[in-house]
Specification:
This protein has 297 residues and is of the alpha+beta class. It is built from 6 helices and 13 strands. The strands form 2 sheets. It has a 7-stranded antiparallel β-sheet. A 6-stranded antiparallel β-sheet has the order 8-9-13-12-11-10. Helix 1 packs across helix 2, helix 2 crosses helix 3 and helix 2 packs parallel to helix 6.
Length: 297
């Protein structure tokens, strides 16, 4: 079983204490480093410290060592290895080097997965963490921002979170009051990562229908036809966004038509919500940019 070793590093024109302070906020609500919302956030079951358990996306690990302002080590039993961040002083403390090291001993299947999928994604995420550290600490990048290859874009699209079925939220008043009689309804929900746009106006493009009403964090889209009426509500909460559909049929042909369409509708609704969610996530400012905006206000 061979050892996989993967190292990324960046020299940052800022004192190690400044970069170490950013590292101490990793996985916090105001995390300035992990590249959300394009990627699922790093989260733990408690504040950052030895014993904290969690991960990001499907990657699971726990904090096995932590020296505030200097280093963090995460052990991943599932991969038979670890990864860590270290802040190394340079030039008497005028600059520093931020290093991410991964070592693991995967089996044959793990090695194949690492080579084909995990490593391309891992390399991009870590380089974006380093980009964010440099932006947050200095306000600029000394090199072009990390770019995604076509393969990484495909892997990201395939692995992007999928909506889950949900009940119609109580807060979705426009959806609940759209019709006096509802013949069909469903709802799909996706979490909102840190940095996602929570302005309901940004979510109007989730479906190609005119806006019928807006109320606080809810936008109601829809269209009326001779045989049936359709409404789609987008409710933007603090932690998630929910797409609710309600339908009222008018005639026997409308009921027959929707008896067929209702089987295709869930796929179409999930796809539309997921596509728009990903589009907004990729367009959002980086964690490092968000940090600079906060500190320069």
């Amino acid at each position: 079983m061979r050892t996989v070793r993967n190292v990324h590093q960046r020299i940052i024109d800022a004192p190690p204490a400044a970069v170490g302070a950013l590292l101490d906020r990793l996985a916090g609500e105001d995390d300035p480093l992990f590249p959300t919302p394009a990627w699922e956030a790093m989260r733990f079951d408690r504040p950052l410290g030895v014993g904290a358990d969690g991960g990001h996306g499907s990657a699971r690990y726990h904090v096995s060592a932590y020296e505030p302002g200097r280093s963090i080590r995460f052990d991943s039993p599932g991969l038979n290895g670890y990864h860590r961040f270290d802040v190394e002083p340079l030039d008497g403390g005028a600059r520093c080097r931020l290093v991410h090291t991964l070592e693991m001993r995967p089996g044959m299947a793990g090695t194949l997965s690492w080579t084909l999928a995990v490593r391309p994604l891992h390399d991009v995420v870590v380089e974006e963490v380093l980009d964010n550290a440099e932006r947050a600490a200095t306000g600029r990048l000394t090199r072009p921002a990390t770019r995604w290859s076509p393969w990484v874009r495909l892997l990201h699209r395939l692995s992007y979170p999928r909506p889950v079925a949900a009940g119609i939220p109580q807060e979705a008043r426009l959806a609940r009051g759209a019709f006096d009689r509802t013949d069909f309804s469903d709802a799909w929900r996706l979490p909102l990562e840190r940095g996602m746009d929570r302005d309901p106006g940004a979510w109007r493009g989730v479906l190609p229908f005119p806006v019928r009403a807006a109320d606080g964090r809810e936008v109601l889209l829809g269209q009326d036809a001779r045989h049936l009426d359709f409404r789609a509500s987008v409710l933007v909460g603090d932690d998630d966004v929910t797409l609710t559909t309600v339908v009222r049929t008018r005639t026997a042909p409308g009921r027959l038509y929707f008896a067929v369409v209702r089987h295709l509708h869930p796929y179409a609704a999930r796809t539309a919500l997921r596509r728009h969610h990903r589009r907004l996530a990729l367009a959002a400012p980086t964690a490092g940019e968000r940090h600079r905006r906060r500190v320069t206000r």
